[in-house]
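Many introductory courses stop at the sequence. We go one step further.
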Amino acid sequence: MDALIASRTVIPVLTISRASDAVLLARALVRGGIHILEVTLRTPAAAEAVALIQAEVPEATVALGTVMTEADVALAHRLNVGLSFSPGATPALLKAARDARITLIPGIQTASDLMMAAELGYHVVKFFPAMPAGGLAALKALAAPFPQTRFCPTGGIDEFSATQWLALPCVFAVGGSWLATPQDIEQGNWAAIEQKAGRIKNLLSSRAL
């Protein structure tokens, strides 16, 4: 987690409908310089896709996304993923993740969400959905009373706004589906995905965030 917080990176949010696409997708992103990949639990192929990437693309760190239930926590444990994301947070989910000793970054949107997460020991969270929830101004205001908390905004962020979010001291990463949209994946646009990954990686490298 310390290494992730220091990375100031972009995490692609991936919805994979065919497990057979997983390795080609992961390799394209890694070639572009992006190594932390969030595979969402939005399709039946997700678990197989995670296992394939873990087996065949060792340069990638696979995170499990859309973790919402105790069963999802158990799946994250079985898959031995290094990191999991949830769109929201409930006491039951946070306690299950803590008991299973998986690294969960829970989704929050309000001060009450943050207070509940902090009570259970969570100080690294996802701000979701970032743009509909008020964008940069909302996160700045929300983060002020919680100086110990670090955020990964996700939802409505794109290539052009990613660096604005990462310039905030409280933000350690941003998530987004623009790097590899469901359409790109469905059509096998691996070269385009690699190019987008390379552009954002170069942009981040060229700016002192």
